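Field reference: sequence -> structure
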Amino acid sequence: MATILAVNAGSSSVKLSVYMAEKGGSPSQVAEAQVSGLTAPPAVLKYTRGHVIVISHREVSDKVNDQRSAFAVMLDTLIDDADFPLIRRREDISIICHRIVHGGDFTKPQLIHDHTYDHLEALNDLAPLHNANSLGIIRQCCDWFPHARNVACFDSQFHATIPQHIRTYPIDQTVAQSNRLRKYGFHGLSYSFITRSVARHLNKPLHETSLIALHLGSGASACAIRGGQSWDTSMGLTPLAGLPGATRSGSVDPSLVFHYASDVGRLSPASTRDLHISRAEEILNKEAGWKALTGTTDFGKIAAAAAKSRKRRSSEEEGDEDEDTRNKRLAFDLVVDRICGFIGSYYVTLRGQVDALVFAGGIGERSDLLRAAVVDQVSCLGFRLNEEANSAGGKRENGEEEPVVWDVGKEGVTPRVLVCKTDEQFEMARLCAEDEEFW
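Structure field:
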């Protein structure tokens, strides 16, 4: 039996899940910690042991100023917990798996050694806003846990099956190949988990399962899954392409940024020696998305305002709305439109052979308003919603545990409409548990 740490380092938070697993077996989660608020202090620690909430909200700003210090605080929390005997010291940890957004041409998780680390560091220019945070913790873990196996799991690896004619950009291929310029796709750990979980829910073999899956959070993407494998996805060379996010523009006319500002080719003041960010990347990744339209990254507030606006418009003049409500309705309608555009495209690329439309990610799981608006717009493709099930979400009576996948589609109608509670940390731990190389 091995103790596996799954580390998910984002731009504003770090999540740490602890699993117990046997070689080839399914991991069992025993603890989870998270530090959030790294870019919007105060930094806050949460810690759960099994089903027990040990720390629900503790400010740790005096100890945390970046991802590495956040990881250190969470590790100390685990070791100092007298009621958590599985980790008393660092040597109790056998495998540490790290979520890496951009893995280039890697098609499976990689054991980290100096050569692997140098290769990942060289990919920083393809994902300057994402890989650097993870690499900092990886270096920290290699120093602190010399006895453990550190494993890199890539968000891009699931999309290695995308056909050449889809992943290729129509530019000079000599330049493209020498600079590794092609569609890679991301959120792959989530889509891998979704595909397996939905196939099990539908009682279908993985290789016979075809889906249109939506990972909708502050970062959002869509994926066409054909026969259990990625066929196309909305993100491209970087996570910027495709759907708009909380602060990302999603796909726009490539020349837009040059009309937006005159200094877009220069390095941003936020750049460091290890992190090179152009002003253009900063604008499209951090100063766009629905926050640019509404002033908030909270999509729940945007959806609620849009729903309230629709009720008002049914009885009053649109001009009676205040500017804030109009902006939130605009953002909501824009996001729905972009999502539906990908659903339509992927329905065609899958030739109508679709088992289910799957909503996942924080927004996909929680926003019944978004699901209702999307399914209504794509109903021409045969999707139908069960309004009562959609409103209820995954809640169960009598204290039953919330399912991983639940059905919100109209009974008897195919393709199905499903919601999946995705789990990237579990997917990383599973990949490590099943690969003998990491034992």
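Note: The chain is about 35% helix and 20% strand.
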